[in-house]
Amino acid sequence: MSTVHVVSHPLVQHKLTMIRDQETGPKDFRDLVDELSTLLAYEVTRDLPLEDCVVETPMCKMTGRVIAGRKIGIVPILRAGLGMVNGVLRLIPTAKVGHIGLYRDPETLLPVEYYCKLPTDVEERQIIVLDPMLATGGSAAAAITYLKKLQVSSIKLMCLLAAPEGIELMQREHPDVDIFTAAIDERLNSHGYILPGLGDAGDRLFGTK
Questions:
Q1: What is the tens place of the pLDDT at every residue in 126-167?
Q2: Is 20 among the residues known to form the active site?
Q3: Annotation marks residue 104 as catalytic
Q4: Residues 157-184: tens digit of each pLDDT
Q5: CA dist., res. 7 & res. 95, Å (int)
Q6: How would you classify the pairing of strands 4-6 and 50-56?
Q7: What does each C-alpha distance from 111 to 121, 137, 176, 190 come to in angstroms?
Q8: Has 200 been annotated as catalytic?
Q9: Is the bond leading into 79 cis (omega within 30 degrees of zero)?
Q10: pLDDT at 113
């Protein structure tokens, strides 16, 4: 079974509360999501492998540690996942970025794919899927299923908020994919929105309704 990592750092929790506030406008919301994404990415990458590397400081030679193993790729789920990209790239500027476009059918609540563009070497990378809200889990699970069909074997999911229903579906369909989130909320309402949540992340990021 995959592990759910709830990042309880005080800065994460403080910024999460600010983006929950309905009085937070689009500009501040975008800035806070950007900052939260950097903090969460720090935790997602905590277990990256290291290898020895000899460097010469102004004083002498020494053996330091550098990141080894697979390179990183990030795949935001459109459109709300776009708000998390720059925050991750600030921490991992060499990461390649793919995009998967999915929307949730308002009647069935099932994901519908409308766009996909990925790095040509996606199967060789450790992929971090970005989706602010793990609500029903349908979009994230569908995106990860698509990545696995392309032989991607190392995947993690990073979200700002998660609902128990979304976690249950993810762990049932993708028990090998760890989930990183700032909080697990109470439940979904009848329209598939997280409670207490923060509303529609995409609308709040881009000032739409």
A1: 999 999 999 999 999 999 999 999 999 999 999 999 999 999
A2: no
A3: yes
A4: 999 999 999 999 999 999 999 999 999 9
A5: 22
A6: unpaired
A7: 25, 9, 21, 17
A8: yes
A9: yes
A10: 81
Phi, psi of 176 (to 5 degrees): -95, 0
Q: In sequence order, what DSSP letters do the residues of 63-98 get, joined into one string?
A: EEEEE-SSPEEEEEEETGGGGGHHHHHHH-TT-EE-
**Which of the following is catalytic: 17, 28, 70, 104?**
104
- Please give the distance of CA 27 from its chain centroid, rounded to a whole number: 20
Query: Model pTM?
Result: 0.92
Q: What is the pLDDT of residue 191?
A: 86
Which amino acid would we find at residue 135?
A: A
Phi and psi at residue 3, in whole multiples of 5°? Answer: -100, 140
- Please give the structure tokens belonging to residue 77: 């789920």
Instruction: Say which of 105, 108, 121, 145 is annotated catalytic.
Output: 108
Quote the CA–CA distance of 43 and 114 in Å, as a whole number: 31
Calculate the alpha carbon distances from 114 to 5, 8, 78, 104, 198 in Å. 30, 35, 10, 11, 25
